[in-house]
Every structure is written in C-alpha cells, then in structure tokens.
Amino acid sequence: MTATPRFPAVRASHELVAVDRARPPLDEPVVRPLDRALLDAFAAYARGQGRAVADLGCGPGGMTAYLDRRGVRAFGVDLSPAMVAVARRTYPGLRFEVGRMAGLDVADGTLGGVLSWYGTAHTPPGELPDLFAEFARVLAPGGYALVAFAAGDDEPRRPEPAEGAAAVVDADGTPPGVMAGLLTEAGLAEVARLVRRPDEGEHGPQGFVLSRKPPAP
C-alpha cells in the first residue's frame, strides 16, 4: 500500500522524539490507576487466549514490556524505525517491528489481542474504519482489542508539540461513543468503555474502549 503524505510527516515527528526516549527502562511505565486496571484486565483476557498480542504504535516499547511482565506474549509495531531501534535497545528480549497499523504483516485470525495505547492519535477519523477492520482481521475469534485515546471535550484545543520536540499532535479527541461504534462496525463487540477526567498534565478527558471479536460458534 502506498503511503499518503501524512505518514512521512508522522514518521519524521517520531524520529525527532526517539532520541528523547532513549533512556534506561523504568520498572513500570507511568500508568494512572484506572488506566492500569483496564490494562491489567486486557492482559488477563488476552493471556487466556494463549496467543501473541500486538502493541500497535508501541513507541519506545514500555507498554509492550508492561504486557510481557504480566505473562502476555507481546510484540510491538511502530511506524518509526528510530522508535523501534530504541525499543529493541531498551528491551532486547522482546520483539519489535517497523510497520503500519493499517497494513500489518500478520496472518488472518492469529492474535489473541491488539493494544492501541494512543496509537490512533495521528489517524484521520475517516481512516479509522479501515484501521479497525485490520484489527478485526488479525484477531483470532475470541480475541480482544483495547484502544486508548484522547476523548476530547467541548473546547477544542490547539495542537501542541510533544515534549522535547516539534512533533505532530492532533488537536481534537474522538467521542467515546463514536470510537466504540466504529469498533462495533468492524466486527468487534464492546465489552467495556471508560471515560476518565484529565489528570494534571493532560489536556482533556481520556477514553478507553475494550472490545472482543466474537468467539467461533
């Protein structure tokens, strides 16, 4: 699939921040309590599938390592070669690949779970249906998808650079009902939905949708 102009811009912005992420691994990434509860639930569900789990938009690999510590056979995928290099260097025992979320090099129906921890931040709303169709394609029957995203609010916020670099950051969040509906249309049934008020340092509400591909009859 030919990359649109957006992908080189996003990749370039990630290359800029990759150097900032090249630091020793933390025992745990910074995860807020409610977020951690959902992540741990997702890990438990996915672990029960007995299959590999993809962390899409994995960045420097912290969430991939988080899942690994919870007994999940996780691997990471990111658009940025520099980010993947940081992840491989930081977590040499884990698998990381360069790739696009909407065009995964994964066979149909083989994954027990898909994690997109703010991985859709640079995806235009019109491209989300194709992205979630790809999630559904790679998930085995009964597999789970957890999507974390900026839920937005009533006051549109201006794009801001990522910390330490002039990276692209989308201005508006996605309404949780819209996100859940798109996942449902892709064939993933909603299991749980959470909207959390912003904590210090966050610009707006944060949304989380846990979905499941229906088990085989």
Helix-strand blueprint:
Elements: H1 6-21, H2 33-47, E1 53-56, H3 62-69, E2 74-78, H4 81-90, E3 95-98, E4 111-117, H5 128-138, E5 139-150, H6 176-185, E6 189-196, E7 206-212
Parallel strand pairs: 1-2, 1-4, 2-3, 4-5
Antiparallel strand pairs: 5-7, 6-7
Helix pairs in contact: 1-4
Describe this structure in a few short sentences:
The chain is of the alpha/beta class. Helix content is 32%, strand content 22%. It has helices at residues 6-21, 33-47, 62-69, 81-90, 128-138, 176-185; strands at 53-56, 74-78, 95-98, 111-117, 139-150, 189-196, 206-212.
Descriptive account of the structure:
- There is one protein chain.
- This protein is 32% helix and 22% strand.
- It has a 7-stranded mixed sheet with strand order 3-2-1-4-5-7-6, sandwiched between helices.
- Helix 5 links the parallel strand 4 and strand 5.
- 39% of the residues are buried.
- The N terminus is likely disordered.
